[in-house]
Amino acid sequence: MSARVFLIRHGETDWSLGNKHCSFTDIPLSKQGESQTDYTREWDVGEGRLIDPKNVTRIYCSQRTRARRTTELLRLGVHYHQHYHERGEDSTKTAAMPQQTGELAESTIQVTPCLNEWNYGDYEGLTLGDIARIREQTGEGPGSQWNIWTDGCPNGESPEQVSNRVDELICEIRGVMESTAASWPGGQVVAHAAGEPRDVVCIGHGHILAAMALRWVGAPLHMGVRLLMEPAGVAVLGFEHDDLKQPAVLLGRRPGR
Description:
By secondary structure, the chain is α/β, with parallel strands linked by helices. The chain has one domain (5-121, 153-250): 3-Layer(aba) Sandwich (Rossmann fold). The protein contains 7 helices and 10 strands. The chain has an 8-stranded mixed sheet, sandwiched between helices. Strand 6 and strand 7 (189-191) form a beta hairpin. The longest helix has 20 residues, at 159-178. It is globular. Mean pLDDT is 85; it is low at 94-104. This is Phosphoglycerate mutase family protein. It comes from Aspergillus sclerotialis. One of its GO terms (molecular function) is sedoheptulose-bisphosphatase activity.
């Protein structure tokens, strides 16, 4: 089986429901967001499902509460407890979980700022309508022309900063996968350690995960305007012909894969 990277957006919050830009503000999941995540777990997580915990070798999570709660509800990295390694503090925290049955990932969850949402700066908490009015008042042009993928956010992050941030994580993930790689005739390099877990899971936010998908295939961020992720949605990154030298975005999958 090919190595894959699963990108999972956190469930709905009151701010996302209201179309407010939320990055550094630590908004919790709404009840609907928790229900959405439960539904994703029931359909996509478990033995023989899209995300089979026994095939997971590494789990990454944003520092924000809404992403961590999503991780808890997905029951990834669980075997009676979830272990979170706080990279910013270089410490590990443990959360008790209900007893589970079946094959379960025991990977320590890497809590990393690389998966924090694009810093919206002055646009934090604002809707697109709010941003349009502000830009018109400040003479920056019609708000409808604002494009985060090319313009970035005032007093927040630029596309270049976000690109560098996700590139750092992608480089680490590729290193994890290449550590079990084997070279085949013709120059193909595949993740090839029989019986070893090789999938990676990243739990984060809409814009940062879309940026990660773009950078995974080497695309510039200005193409991101048409990439969307629904709350508690799952996207899949992989490799064409299972070749680690040919990263790809999986647009469709067969049931059971």
